[in-house]
Write a structure and sequence with these properties.
The protein is an alpha/beta fold. Helices cover about 25% and strands about 45% of the residues. Strands 1, 2, 3, 4, 5, 6 and 7 form a seven-stranded mixed beta sheet that branches.
């Protein structure tokens, strides 16, 4: 009986660890230190955005890329429909849907609601190294998207 249960439990633990990476990534971008998302990737990890052929590879490049985000950016991302498939003891892949609300020029307080800046999905590849799961690659596909709105100075800090 244990032989039947253990693989299922191990698979669920791997799925949950990978799901946690997806959510942790978003929390760090929206509520924490954006450059710290680099810690969630393998040393050779890749963030790829085929539209515009943007590809960032390696932890230091990822750290610099996400640290370059404007300091006055307000963003909130919703991640849904997270599906992780474990392929082996050390590899998994996943898909998740995203909706991003984002403005630049934010200086505090509450602002009027906006339409989403982007709606799309991510395709993830995960790798387990020394017992810990990491993102090996994350590719974003945005069939709905636009430029980030910059708030007018008078609207940037409504209470």
């Amino acid at each position: 009986m244990d032989d039947e249960i253990t693989p299922s439990v191990e698979r669920m633990l791997a799925e949950r660890a990978c799901e946690r990476l997806i959510v942790d990534f978003i929390h760090r971008l929206d509520l924490g230190d954006p450059s710290s998302v680099a810690e969630l990737f393998t040393p050779d990890g890749v963030w790829h955005w085929p539209s515009g052929d943007r590809r960032i590879e390696g932890c230091e490049a990822l750290r610099a890329y996400f640290a370059s985000r404007p300091a006055d950016r307000l963003s909130r991302r919703l991640m849904t429909n997270i599906l992780v498939t474990v392929d082996s003891e050390a590899t998994a892949r996943g898909v998740s849907y995203l909706t991003t609300y984002r403005v630049d020029g934010y200086s505090g307080g509450m602002i009027e609601p906006r339409l989403p800046a982007n709606v799309g999905h991510y395709e993830h590849i995960f790798r387990k190294i020394d017992g810990t799961w990491f993102l090996a690659s994350r590719t974003v596909f945005l069939p709905f998207g636009g430029v980030t709105e910059r708030l007018p100075v008078a609207d940037a800090s409504h209470a």
